[in-house]
Design brief:
There is one protein chain. The chain has helices spanning about 10-15, 60-65, 80-90, 95, 105-110, 115-120, 220-230, 255-260, 285-290, 300-305, 305-335, 365-370, 400-405, 420-425, 485-490, 510; strands spanning about 35-40, 70, 75, 125-130, 145, 175-180, 185-190, 210, 240-245, 255, 340-345, 350-355, 360, 370, 375, 390, 395, 435-440, 445, 450-455, 460-465. The protein has about 525 residues and is α/β, with parallel strands linked by helices. Strand 20 and strand 21 form a beta hairpin. The longest helix is centred in the middle third of the chain and has 28 residues, at about 305-335. The chain is globular and about 60 Å long. About 50% of the residues are buried.
């Protein structure tokens, strides 16, 4: 069932019609609970951010109305493992040594670091964890946890595996793997496209999309929402830290058909692109743009006329995960913890859908670094603005220190981020901040309020005026009149000699970018 308790509204109207929940009295000594919501591969295509004008996300929009929407938030790394390791440890990738997906688990690589749930547990909290939080299954990190088997889709890994007879078709114009779902025969891939990433592997093709005749609870995210909602509605003896990680809209872009139906009959807007967009980039940057390693090739999407279907599928998956967020909010608001729970919602990194001829993540462009971030302080909190939008550049590294301040936890030295509490009180203030994103060792993106600077490990550079060029179509790095601006942003980049090398076991770019 789709949870759509509020009518759809435009991005501007959604924040203008501020609905402030009633203040619920609580004893001064009461510790605040936390609902910490992570969403995989979600870019800014949500209603309140306006990244796509047709996105239907009423639940995330209403969450924005009860807190502050950070419209200029960026990840520490545009890939799952390093991004999540950074969020949960509060350290930059170049500080932890986690740069890629096949790097070691942060818990094994840096057991000396206190991760967010560990800090809350030490402060007397009961901790819950469900779904994708760290890149790896986070067993043992929480007092109670839940990790469903079918995470990436309603199919198990065995169900999507090509047989020896089928496997040669995977890279052809007629890929064909026959499987079943709820008593029906299904032929994969649904989009009928050949595999760009793994044509020689029998593993299931993840660069696929389309509706399925299933219910929410047939998806891992549906079960994650139900498990967490049940705990949010309970009365607990201890304050709780509840972390929930949703897998959608990560590929494959499968979801129940009813979420696709939301977009039927619409002339869906495709991403804005420029034919010669790559002409002012270095050879290395062009290669990264055209790489199929994190999803698939733009040329293949165009050849098979699948761009509109992919956009619809991504939007449908966002609406599906938005409905799961709605279930959490409904359970929390109907129970005993409604008044004293902090809610944070964040995406681990952005995602390209053809911009710069790229699909997926793992780039330094804003499409991959820009993420949704909503912080809704507990209703008992005073002196915070609600229904506001903050345009100051912020980082996902700021979540840890913000939680420490909001929940009055013991201070923790060495965190790389800054508390967002001052911006919750005054979202309009500006500090001229620049936030950093690392995409593999030696590649950095520095984002300020107006300018965006990228420097690659080979020394090539890009500079964009975000105010005048929001699509980042014109690289200004070689223009002498912008040398001072470029130099100012470059000061925020680290000295690579001072930090650890990538973790042992890293084997190459292609493997790094999987999942």
């Amino acid at each position: 069932m789709i949870v759509l308790p509020f009518k759809f509204a435009s991005a501007g109207l959604a924040l203008a019609l501020v609905v402030i929940p009633p203040v619920v009295a609580a004893p001064a000594a009461t510790k605040l609970n936390v609902l910490f919501i992570a969403i995989d591969d979600l870019n800014d295509w949500i209603g309140c951010l306006g990244g796509h004008p047709q996105a239907k996300t009423p639940n995330m929009d209403r969450l924005a109305r009860r807190g502050v929407l950070f419209s200029n938030a960026h990840c520490a790394a545009p890939l799952c493992n390093p991004s999540r390791a950074a969020v949960f440890s509060g350290r930059q990738p170049f500080e932890t040594g986690v740069f890629a997906n096949d790097d070691a688990n942060i818990r094994r690589l840096r057991p000396d670091l206190v991760l967010i749930p560990q800090h809350f547990k030490a402060a007397g909290y009961r901790t819950f964890g469900a779904g994708k939080l760290l890149h790896q299954t986070s067993r043992g990190l929480f007092d109670e946890d839940f990790f469903p088997e079918t995470r990436w889709s309603p199919f198990t890994p065995e169900q999507v595996k090509y047989t020896a007879a089928e496997q040669p078709s995977k890279g052809t114009t007629n890929p064909r793997h026959v499987t079943g779902l709820k008593g029906k025969t299904i032929v994969l891939p649904l989009n009928r496209m050949p595999s760009d990433r793994d044509p020689d592997s029998p593993g299931g093709e993840s660069f696929d999309w389309g509706p399925l005749e299933i219910d929410d609870l047939d998806m891992g995210d549906g079960r994650i929402a139900a498990w967490t909602a049940e705990r949010l509605g309970r009365q607990h003896e201890q304050p709780f830290f509840a972390a929930v990680g949703f897998y959608r809209p990560h590929i494959p872009l499968f979801a129940p058909k009813e979420y696709f139906d939301l977009y039927d009959g619409l002339d869906l807007k495709l991403p804005d692109v420029k034919a010669d967009d790559l002409d002012d980039l270095s050879p290395g940057a062009k290669a990264r743009a055209l790489s199929a390693d994190s999803a698939g090739a733009h040329a293949t999407v165009l050849k098979y006329n699948q761009w509109p279907a992919a956009v619809k599928s991504y939007l449908a998956c966002i609406s599906f995960v938005d409905a799961q967020v709605g279930k959490l909010l409904e359970a929390l608001d109907a129970g005993p913890n409604a008044g004293n729970t902090v809610i944070m919602l964040w995406g681990d990194h952005g995602w390209h859908l053809g911009e710069k001829q790229h699909w997926g993540k793992w780039t330094g462009w804003e499409r991959a670094t820009h993420v949704p971030l909503i912080v809704a302080p507990a209703r008992v909190a005073a002196t915070v603005q609600r229904g506001a939008k903050c345009a100051e550049p912020v980082s996902l590294l700021d979540l840890y220190p913000t939680l420490i301040e909001l929940c009055s936890l013991p201070r923790l030295d060495g965190l790389a981020g800054q508390s967002l509490v001052p911006l919750l009180k005054n979202p309009a203030q500006s500090a001229g901040r620049v936030v950093l994103t690392t995409f593999d060792k030696g590649n950095y993106s520095a984002t300020g309020a107006r300018w965006h600077y990228i420097r690659y490990a080979d020394g090539s550079e890009e500079l964009y005026n975000r105010a005048n060029d929001p699509h980042e179509w014109t690289n200004l790095a070689a223009r002498s009149e912008h040398a001072a601006q470029k130099a100012a942003l470059a000061k925020s980049l680290p000295d690579d000699r001072a930090y650890p090398a990538p973790a042992a076991g890293t084997s190459g770019v292609k493997k790094k970018q999987k999942k």
